[in-house]
Design goal:
One of its GO terms (molecular function) is heptose-1-phosphate adenylyltransferase activity. This is Bifunctional protein HldE. Residues 358-491 are annotated as: Cytidylyltransferase. InterPro entries: Bifunc_HldE (IPR023030), Carboh/pur_kinase_PfkB_CS (IPR002173), Cyt_trans-like (IPR004821), PfkB_dom (IPR011611), RfaE_dom_I (IPR011913), RfaE_dom_II (IPR011914), Ribokinase-like (IPR029056), Rossmann-like_a/b/a_fold (IPR014729). By secondary structure, the chain is an alpha/beta fold. It folds into 2 domains: 4-323, Ribokinase (UDP-N-acetylmuramoyl-L-alanine:D-glutamate ligase); 325-490, Rossmann fold (3-Layer(aba) Sandwich), CATH 3.40.50. It has 17 helices and 19 strands. Strands 5-4-1-8-9-10-11-12-13 form a 9-stranded mixed sheet, sandwiched between helices. Strands 14-17-16-15-18-19 form a 6-stranded parallel sheet, with helices on both faces. Strands 3-2-6-7 form a 4-stranded mixed sheet. The longest helix is centred in the middle third of the chain and has 15 residues, at 220-234. The chain is elongated and about 85 Å long.
Length: 491
Amino acid sequence: MFDFDHSLSQLSGVTVLCIGDLMLDDFVYGDVARISPEAPAPVIAVKRSEMVIGGAGNVARNIASLGAQCIFIGLVGEDDAGRTLKAALAAEPRIEASLVVDGSRPTTRKVRFVSEHYATHMLRADWEEARPADAKAEKALLEHVLAALPRVDAVVLSDYAKGVLTKDLIRQVIEATSAAGKPVIVDPKGKDYSIYRGATLVTPNRKELSEAVHRDVWSDADVAAAAIDLRSSLQCEAVLVTRSDEGMTLVERDADPVHVPSYAVKISDVSGAGDTVVAVLSAMLALRADFESAMRAANAAAAVVVGKRGTATVSINELRHRILPAATLAAEEKILFDWSELDARLAAWRKQGLRIGFTNGCFDILHPGHVRMLAQARAACDRLVLGLNSDESVSRLKGPERPVQNVQSRAEVLAALEAIDLVVVFEEDTPRDLIAKIRPRVLIKGADYTREQVVGHEIVEADGGEVVLVGLVPGHSTTDIVKRSRSTAKN
């Protein structure tokens, strides 16, 4: 199970290769207060403008903003927009850009006119020539890719159908990356998805999925069925469908489809949100995260960037706080001794469609094994509830000299962890009654248990939930720590 808390800090050690259609995004902001006397068109009084790296370049920016290194390969024209992009990429310390110059075509540029007051797009003007790169440019792009491949942990193809990712280039990149044993993630475009066959992960939106399978997809079942068909036809490991405000759906080989809802956020601008999603997916897979964990991280990142104006990026701290929102709460807000408050907390999460997880224990002396296990447990769900044995319960289970710390102290220490969303104290010897009340979708325990040994497994499974066993860190035991400390005290 992927450990978000530990692994996000490791992003600075990974490198992602990004290949795709580079663009210059130009945002012109102003106010509209009148209609032109020359034609029935609004007049925008320009207040400011902003030029940013767009298209596949925005994928590279997002990879870099997460703290990872990015090698970017793209194509520009011999013009002012191309020179602007070269300078902008050179100013990014975590991006190493190799740009092929083709003087026969313009650099793709998009100018968006945006109402400053209402944060709405009024008009977009495009400068582009969407045709496949010629043989000379294609050869130069491939040479850059093959030279960079040994230095990277993952490859992402960001296809905007402007000509960089030709059929031959896509095929050769996928084959070379697969032969190197590295994941290749594709943000696709067009109707012929056969060109992406053999990729690790393909990420269409719902409209693109519909076009790829040549049928309408509306419901969760439609999306899942279409994604299963697409995954099979492309012989890829997984398909992830982005569904705007309806969240995301993941289909993996030999696994049931998984759907996650979108976060409830105020949307300011959706420009570039797809770039952020594919950037986070590629960074997570570079860390060897599982597909579901990568999807959850990407879903959280999308919620951050749609709340920003323009072509935006997400930072590692923003991603951490979105994935682990309990980190922003005071410890006392996360502790419940009175179960009467539990229903309201759970109802709010369920209304958002969040996957509730549960684990439990005495946690008498918190040690690294506990912390790692809880971080892995949190990765298996959207919200993690921890059932904590009361002092009387611990004494019955561990003996009259335990617990070492009282329940208030234990609860406060646990509530301080980012991985924990709620600590609920129970008096019984087992958490069966608490599990029956919470009815979590996933029940998590350490791998020293079997599924049948996990208390409450039959309750959760009867509701269609699952039991997840997470790995333990060897050499850590509260009982051993207590014995050693008491032995030392006697000596």
